[in-house]
Specification:
The chain is α+β, with helices and mostly antiparallel strands and 263 residues long. Helices cover 13% and strands 27% of the residues. The chain has three helices and nine strands, in the order αβααββββββββ. The protein has helices spanning 4-18, 83-93, 106-113; strands at residues 66-72, 128-130, 139-145, 151-159, 162-171, 173-179, 182-188, 195-204, 209-219. It has a five-stranded antiparallel β-sheet with strand order 1-5-4-3-2, covered by helices on one side. The longest helix is centred in the first third of the chain and has 15 residues, at 4-18.
């Protein structure tokens, strides 16, 4: 049995600190139950007897890479190359290609070839430079304006004194952002008003390319997406064998990655 003085002191301390709350009294200092907690539920596999797929899914070319012909990058520095010259070299290497990673509309390809003599109409936008691969050097990020307010996005890695294209995609882009080492695109949804698609492209060392590692449909506030009168997107990639006649090249404002280029 504790001395009466110790019991009295404990009671006074309990009253001062807890204001006489439950827990002070006969079971001084004891633990009280907070009630039952929900049972943890793990993932449950549905239809476990489904046989494995025998045919691989359609290849959309997300991991396709290509060496840019005729372009040299001294000291593996992307700042030493001209973005227009890089895209023009790819156009020359793949004439008449309208789908896949090299796909361009015919009038876009013509405008790129004429960038030297008609720079105001050149569809290649201001380049940006960021380290997306984590190798300590910048990669080259290029945007290309296309018909129907589409934008072609390409990323180039400097290696072995040349350039390797490690990402190529085309979509009706709302904005492009760089977050850490991810390149994030926002694309308006033509079929679900008030929503947009957001895709994060990340470097994958094993594939040696940028892959769409996170893809989501996000609800947005009215007015943040493209206006409802915007024509439905016509993707250049992947649309093998497309014969649709492209619309005239518009001149929308540059879609810029919201970061300042490195000095």
């Amino acid at each position: 049995m504790r001395p009466r003085g110790v019991q009295l002191a404990a009671g006074v301390l309990c009253a001062l600190v807890l204001g006489g709350a439950v827990g002070c009294g006969r079971n001084e200092g004891g633990l009280e139950s907070a009630g039952s907690t929900p049972t943890a539920v793990g993932p449950v596999r549905l239809w476990p007897d489904l046989p494995p797929a025998t045919d691989p899914p359609l290849d959309y070319g997300e991991s396709d890479t290509e060496r840019v012909p005729g372009i040299k990058a001294a000291d593996n520095d992307v700042h030493a190359v001209d973005a227009v010259a890089v895209v023009a070299a790819e156009v020359r290497a793949h004439p008449g290609t309208y789908s896949g990673g090299d796909g361009l509309y015919e009038e876009t390809a013509r405008a790129i070839k004429a960038c030297g003599t008609a720079p105001a109409a050149c569809p290649v936008m201001r380049p940006y430079y960021r380290d997306l691969t984590g190798n300590g050097r910048d990669e080259l990020i290029v945007g290309i304006r296309m018909p129907d307010q589409q934008v072609g996005l390409r990323v180039y890695l400097a290696e072995n004194s040349g350039l390797t294209r490690i990402m190529s995609t085309v979509d009706q882009v709302i904005s492009v952002e760089v977050a850490g080492r991810d390149l994030i695109t926002r694309v308006g949804s033509a079929g679900i008003p008030g929503y947009e698609y957001r895709t994060a492209w990340s470097w994958d060392e094993q594939q040696h390319s940028m892959l769409p590692t996170r893809d989501e449909i996000v609800r947005v506030k009215p007015g943040r997406t493209a206006p409802p009168t915007l024509p439905a997107p016509r993707l250049v990639s992947p649309t093998p064998g497309s014969t649709a006649t492209p619309a005239p090249l518009p001149a929308p404002p540059d879609v810029a990655v919201p970061v300042e280029p490195s000095p």
